[in-house]
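hey
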């Protein structure tokens, strides 16, 4: 491996740790500082932090891999996500920023739900915290799988000694750096590193497709289209071969946004409600550019591979292979850093949200109600490490698929929390019984759907993405149970 690659990667790792140490000076005095950055994020940091923590390794691995195999039909995933993210900024962001302060200055989503629905505070807080930790263990594992695949593909044989594999080394190094800056710097460190990582990711997704198309061996749009048509004409079709169920399964990824704790917690941390609009414009611009780049990379990366006789055993590694093949080692290292940025930004956000739930919604709630802020910060740090180790265990299988792991966790959060967050913020009639019913029904439906294999095959046809039945079932459960029950005390709480 060329020394230039190592220089770029070392510089990236060092920068992340320096940011963590800088953030530690101001982000660990109180629990609110450590878990929510003191609610003082600027619009640009909040926007790119939400975007970078959202996109993860699937943006540079999973999505281009899907486009590589199926062509533009898989681009509907990106379109659905863009629409869902935009609606999330419009409907959820300003209301959540305002209401989490109004209802007891909640630092976590479970705490907000407990404060919003006081008659069911304990079960809501407990169940939602369990759902967060359970699904985030899987979600975080998907990021570590991406880190493992990078090292396995890019550093073949370097770490194969003493029983270690390149894949295992990738997991250890990725997790180690993330833990270093997350443990010491908390939410502010995670958000600041997300901002830097988001910039790196977007730049990489502009550079890579441009070089693939117009660099040596690319041939431009015309030759790329000709090559793809010769392989399979459906690769350039948005609809050919795509069933209605397949289309719905793709675009409904956007439903997941309303219930992703690691994304919507950024809304809670924006400086003021009035700055949400600015953050939305910055975040949606970043997301649009990044998604277009990922889609172009997958489609035109397939054309480049065919034209140049490349053997791509795992389509999810197309970004890694082209980074190594087409660029000077210093640039290759930068592109590897972009992939790690995508991975680490999401992992750190997920670890911190899981840690906050374990600290605020278990430790402080059940074990030490009188715990000081300093004690909670230290417990939060220990929980970050614990959840990271569990995720590393789940990710230990090198045959894991990034997109599959992400899709399961995304659906779990989207169905469990999505309808509940929307209705809690917009429908005052929603009560605690309905909220609890929706939370349980949404999570259970997703897990049952996956267990029955109906996301792979349903009634003899193509599978239905589990977020669809989960989201619908949760929404119905909240409305039906709310209308069938009442709680005057809860409404008085809202009126006050």
């Amino acid at each position: 491996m060329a020394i230039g690659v190592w220089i770029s990667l070392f510089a990236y790792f060092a920068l992340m740790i320096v940011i963590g140490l800088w953030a530690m000076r101001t982000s660990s005095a109180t629990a609110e500082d450590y878990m929510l950055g003191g609610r003082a994020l600027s619009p640009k940091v909040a926007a790119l932090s939400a975007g970078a923590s959202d996109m993860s390794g699937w943006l540079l691995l999973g999505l281009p891999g899907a486009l590589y195999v199926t062509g533009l039909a898989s681009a509907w995933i990106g379109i659905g996500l863009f629409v869902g993210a935009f609606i999330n900024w419009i409907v959820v962001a300003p209301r959540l920023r305002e209401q989490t302060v109004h209802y007891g200055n909640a630092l976590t989503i479970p705490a907000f739900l407990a404060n919003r629905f006081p008659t069911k505070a304990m079960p809501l807080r407990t169940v939602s915290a369990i759902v967060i930790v359970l699904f985030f263990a899987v979600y975080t594992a998907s990021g570590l799988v991406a880190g493992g695949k990078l090292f396995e593909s890019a550093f073949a044989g370097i770490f194969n000694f003493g029983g270690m594999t390149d894949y295992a080394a990738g997991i250890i190094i990725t997790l180690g750096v993330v833990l270093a800056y997350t443990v010491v710097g908390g939410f502010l460190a995670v958000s600041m590193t997300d901002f830097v990582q988001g910039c790196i990711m977007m730049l990489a997704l502009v550079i890579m497709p441009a070089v693939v198309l117009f660099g040596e061996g690319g041939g431009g749009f015309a030759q790329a289209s000709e090559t793809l048509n010769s392989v399979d004409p459906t690769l350039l079709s948005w609809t050919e071969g795509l069933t209605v169920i397949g289309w719905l399964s793709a675009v409904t990824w956007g439903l997941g946004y309303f219930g992703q704790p690691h994304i919507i917690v950024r809304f809670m941390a924006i400086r003021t409600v009035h700055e949400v609009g600015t953050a939305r414009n910055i975040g949606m611009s970043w997301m649009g550019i990044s998604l277009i780049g990922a889609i172009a990379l997958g489609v035109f990366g397939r054309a480049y591979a065919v034209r140049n006789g490349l053997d791509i055993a795992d389509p999810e590694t197309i970004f890694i292979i082209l980074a190594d093949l087409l660029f000077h080692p210093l640039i290759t290292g930068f592109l590897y850093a972009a992939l790690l940025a995508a991975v680490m930004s999401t992992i750190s956000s997920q670890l911190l949200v899981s840690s906050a739930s374990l600290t605020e919604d278990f430790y402080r709630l059940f074990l030490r109600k009188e715990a000081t802020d300093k004690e909670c910060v230290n417990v939060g740090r220990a929980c970050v490490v614990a959840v990271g180790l569990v995720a590393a265990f789940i990710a230990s299988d090198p045959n894991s698929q990034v997109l599959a792991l992400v899709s399961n966790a995304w659906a779990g959060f989207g169905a469990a929390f999505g309808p509940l967050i929307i209705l809690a913020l917009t429908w005052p009639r929603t009560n605690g019984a309905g909220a609890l019913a929706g939370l349980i029904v949404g999570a259970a439906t997703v897990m049952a759907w996956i267990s029955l294999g109906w996301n792979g095959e349903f009634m003899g046809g193509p599978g239905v993405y589990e977020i669809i039945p989960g989201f619908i079932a949760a929404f119905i459960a909240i409305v039906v149970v709310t209308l069938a029950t009442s709680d005057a005390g809860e409404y008085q709480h809202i009126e006050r």
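The longest helix spans residues 166-214. Strands lie at 457-458, 461-462.
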